[in-house]
Structures are given as C-alpha cells and as structure tokens.
Amino acid sequence: MSENPYQTYDARILEVKDLTSREKLFTLRFLDPEVEAKFDFKPGQFIIVDIRGFGEFPISICSSPTRKGYFQLCIRKVGRMTKFVHKMKEGDVVGIRGPYGNGFPMEKMEGSNLILVAGGLGMAPLRSVLWYAIDTGKYENVWLLYGTKAYEDILFRDEIIHLLKHGEAMNCSVKLAYEVESPSCIYLEQGFSDRVCKGVVTDLFRGEEFDVENTYALICGPPVMYKFVIRELLDRKLSPGRIYMTLERRMRCGVGKCGHCVVGTSVSMKYICQDGPVFTYWDALSTRGLI
Amino acid sequence: MRYIKLPSENFERFFKSLEAWGTLYAPVKKGDIYSFQEVHDPAEIALDYTRTMLPPKKFFFRPREAILRLKNGRWEEEVEAEPMVLFGLHSCDIHGLKILDKVYLNEPADPYYKSRREKTLIIGISCMPDEYCFCKSLGTHFAMDGFDLFLHELPDGWLVRIGSVRGHEIAWENGELFEEVTDEDLANFKEFEEKRAKAFQKELPQEGLADMLDLAYNSPVWKKYAEICLACGNCNMVCPTCRCYEVCDSWMDAYSSVRERRYDSCFMENHGLVAGGHNFRPTRLDRFRHRYYCKSYFDPTAGYNCVGCGRCDEFCPAKIEHVKVLEEVRGSLQ
C-alpha cells in the first residue's frame, strides 16, 4: 500500500439498492485482498469516495464492522458528485480511502443502555452502531428513536419494520415519528401504537424514562435537530459527557490538513475530521461553532 | 549553538558556494514588492528587505500543484522535490514554517510538503522591523531552531549561528571563509539586537489574549470590521501560516486527468458549505471572526498560529490592521 495518504484504492460495487427516491444503498468491497484484509473501521467513522477525474466526497459508513467482507454507504442525491454516483451500477469500481475520524467509543459504552436518536439521513451512521450493538450483544438495551418526513423517506425500511416487530428479542426497541400522514404510516401506527406516532423525533421521548447513570445517547441528524434533542436529554439529567453527536463538514482531505472542517476559537480549536466527527455535548459547550 | 563569523569580503564566495546544495532562492525587489526568486548573483538580493508578498510557504505548499495524475484509471503519485536553498528568511517566516510543519508533518504526513521540506536548506537573516511588524509580542522575533544557518548583520560581516548538522557541514566545507567570533563581534551583535528590540512600533500584549478573545465572541467590533472587510482573501494568500486548500480534478484529454490542489480562503462563501446547501459560516461576520480565531488560537505546546509578520496588514486593500482588530475586540469587553 502507498505511503501517500491521498491515494485511493479500488472498490467494486457489489450491489445497488434503492432505499427511497433520493437515497441509494451501495455495498462495496475492495478489489485488492490485502487492502480488504487491512480495512477495519468503527461505527461513526467515515471514508472518502473518489470518482477519479471528477472529485472526492466524504461519507460515513452505514454498515456495521461486525459484518465482514463488505461495507455499505447510504448516499443521497444532492449535488454533482452524488448525482454521478447514483448512475453507477453493480460491478462499477470507485476509489476509496479511509477510514477517518474517531468513531463512537463503542468499547467505553459496553454494558450501558444506548439511545440512538436519528433524524432523516442521520440514520445512516447510527445504523452502523445499531447493528454493531445487536451483533455484539454487549449493550444493555438499545433504543432507536427515528424521526422521518414520510413513510417513503424511511431509510432501511425493511430493517426498521423488522426491528419494530422482533426487536424485543434483541434488546432493541425502535420508535418512529413521521411528519407527513399517509395510509402506510397510519397502518404502521395501528400495528405499533405505542411506538409509532405522528410528530417529530423529540415527541418520541414522551413517557420515556432511563437510568441516566448507565445510559449514553448518540445523535445524528440535520443541524437544526441537535438543539431540541439535547434539550430533551438534559431535561432528563443526562450528563453532557454522555451525549455523543456525529457532525458533518465537507472535508477535502480527511487527514487534518485542508482546513475546511476547523471549528473553534482562540482557546479551543478542533478538526472535525480527526478530533471528530463524533463529539460529546460537552465538547460542543467548550468549543464554539461545533453545532 | 555554534557561532562563527563571515567577513563581508567573503560573502559573495559563501553565497556562490551554496549553489552546490540546491537551487538558490533569495528575496529580490520586483517593482514595489519583494519576492523570493531564483538568484545567481548576490548583487540581486535585497538583503535589507522588509517582507516578501508571498511567504516561503510557497516553496513547500504551492499556490497550485498537481498531486495525482490519472493514467489508465489509476492515480500516479507525483512526489518530486528538487534540492533548494532558501536564503534570507526572517525569523518570523522560520516560525511560520514550524507552524505549517505542525499541520503538514503531523501523521499522516503530507508527502509533497515533507519531501520538499527535507530537501531544503534554510538560511535565516537578521532584520529591522518596520511599521507592520509585531513579531516581538508573539516571541517569534528570534529563531532558536528551524534553520540550518542564521546570519546576523555586523558592521564588518555576519555573525553566523549554526542550527543543524547540515548547517555545520556547509560551514565545514567552506572553512576558509569563516573566522572565529571575537568579543567585539559579540558586542556588535548585542548592540544590534538591542537597537532592534527598541525599533518595534506595534505591540500585541499576549497576556490573557486567547481567553479574552473567546469571551468577546459576540463583540460588536467583529461586526464593525466584517463590514469594512472586502472578503478578498488576500490575507489568507500572504499569511505564512494559512494552509487551507481546495481540491479540483481536471481533464487534460479524454484519457488523463489531474488532481490539483490550490490555496483556499476561509473568506470564500463555500468554505463552510456542506452537501445539501447548509453553510456553517453563512455570513461575512462568521468568516471574518473565524480567521481571527484561527490565527489567535493558542496551542499550549506551540503558541499562537500568528507570527506577527505584518503581511495581512500591508496587503489588505481595506487597510484592516490585525493588531488593532484584536485590541479593539479585547477592549470592547470592559
């Protein structure tokens, strides 16, 4: 392997699956067995996808490292690069470098309850945590609170519905909030009246009590969501050090050089790509501009 | 530190001898500005220059450079570095390179920067401050390391400090050009430094600065200056410690493409933009404040990200003064 941190490695698209009208799930595997064997990541880490000759973009890995032999990316069509990627088919090859960033402290959280709070596309990095927690079985209870726009926008819908039905057996409890009413949502709500409701993700906290001494919250969603979710958690006296959030910036390099993800002031300066992208709420309190 | 003396009459021979170590670059005068250029004749050098427009970072982290070339679907790495001798760096610029090292040599090291840095000799030269310099306040007015040789002006030659093994080798190979330092030379050196210390017109008291600036996050002074600022990004380009870059792929023909990087500026609107259109620094105020905070970040192990070279002041078309902004922001707290 090259010493050059900007070199990218061939990975073949094994499968492309439509998740919604905007998001596709890409399953990839490195071509070089040596690269494949060395590639290991933690939930919450990200990689950089290289469409050679067109550019690169950072994206978090949405599969769990417990599932070996492949990794998955959930890509929303939003701009020039992702539009290009959405045209790619099974068998096509892209460049990949990484993984980058700190990821969630999965080992530190072992034995605790996990509350995953996802909004929209924020489901992608938290899916990695979700399956990691279920596969390893090292966590007490796992709650997934997922806020989505409409039934059609639910990412990994099959998995979510599967966990709604059978999650209890895996110590996993899923709750879903939707904003736009539709027959499918009402049908879902009738089936799981205690866990599916119309509203926003913070509504899912209603009536929930948890042991603040033994619980971690992990949040990912659009920038506007953090403030409201954090307020719910702080109201229940969860320590800012137990609230983890994964943040987004458009990193060009991923290795702490290009400067695009720098945040902070004269007393605290962080590179989201290396110091993050996972931060505690305490980090956000002590570093201005983080959220 | 080892000290030797280079008498004035040997300067030319000494300078010529440096060519054996790599391509020689030194400050020359071009119109109204100074610039580091390839030099063959010592008469071309502006020994008493104030500051160049672009700092010596341009030799290691280039304004625009190809990092990868696409051949047959794969990126070929282009890590080339020719041996260079940078002659005549001021202390502030040597400190500036040390700050860049912190970023670019930090693991994983940037291979382009690293190979050029390793193949380059740095020869410092003493200077007299002008109205823009405030390096003394930041402790960057004297370099203790980060150079191979450092030349201090004496009435009849140069007092040379040797800062590295390579510097020692140069002195060794040109042994006949150097003399031992006398007491008189030391007295002259001391006199020069004292005169220089008194010549600074600008000062930025460091005491509690990082803390005060953080507390003054919402100061109206930021807004006042953000409105004067033209957001041209000149200050980023000329700053010896600004190191943001943008990456762009461009096609040379139907089969080959090149991945280039070029200087980026945090004053540009898309610096804080992410996919989907959210901007983390949407206003000029956000971007203005971000640059000042980035420069004023106090790293407990390495100090400030600013070396007080005065370039951003001299080349600011809106005549915004770095020290004045920070002083006013601090003052607005009371």
Number-wise, the strands of chain A total 15
Q: Per CATH, what is the topology of the largest domain in chain A?
A: Rossmann fold
CATH class of the largest domain in chain A: Alpha Beta
Radius of gyration of chain A: 19 Å
Which key phrases capture this entry?
heterodimer, A: 291 residues, alpha/beta, Elongation Factor Tu (Ef-tu), domain 3, Rossmann fold, Dihydroorotate dehydrogenase B (pyrk subunit), domain 3, 7-stranded mixed beta sheet, 6-stranded antiparallel beta sheet, 15 strands, B: 334 residues, alpha+beta, 2 domains, 4-stranded antiparallel beta sheet, 12 helices
Describe this entry's structure for a reader.
- By secondary structure, chain A is an alpha/beta fold.
- Chain A folds into three domains: 9-100, Elongation Factor Tu (Ef-tu), domain 3, CATH 2.40.30.10; 113-246, Rossmann fold; 249-291, Dihydroorotate dehydrogenase B (pyrk subunit), domain 3 (Ribbon), CATH 2.10.240.
- Chain A is built from eight helices and 15 strands.
- Chain A has helices spanning 33-38, 80-86, 123-136, 157-166, 183-191, 223-235, 272-275, 281-286; strands at 9-18, 23-30, 46-51, 55-60, 71-76, 93-100, 113-119, 142-148, 172-178, 196-198, 215-220, 243-246, 262-264, 269-271, 278-280.
- In chain A, strands 10-9-8-7-11-12-15 form a seven-stranded mixed beta sheet, with helices on both faces. Chain A has a six-stranded antiparallel beta sheet with strand order 4-3-6-1-2-5.
- Chain A is globular and about 55 Å long.
- The model of chain A has no long low-confidence stretch (mean pLDDT 93).
- Chain B is α+β, with helices and mostly antiparallel strands and 334 residues long.
- Chain B has two domains: 2-198, no CATH class; 209-331, no CATH class.
- Chain B has helices spanning 11-17, 91-104, 111-118, 135-138, 165-173, 183-198, 209-215, 220-228, 234-238, 284-296, 311-314, 322-331; strands at 2-7, 23-30, 33-38, 64-71, 74-77, 84-89, 120-125, 149-154, 157-162, 245-251, 257-263, 298-299, 303-304.
- Chain B has a seven-stranded mixed beta sheet with strand order 1-9-8-7-6-2-3, sandwiched between helices. Chain B has a four-stranded antiparallel beta sheet with strand order 5-4-11-10, with no helix packed on it. In chain B, strands 12-13 form a two-stranded antiparallel sheet.
- In chain B, a hairpin with a 5-residue loop joins strand 10 (245-251) and strand 11 (257-263).
- In chain B, helix 8 crosses helix 10.
- The longest helix of chain B has 16 residues, at 183-198.
- Chains A and B meet through strand 4 and strand 13 of A and strand 4, strand 5, helix 7, strand 10 and strand 11 of B.
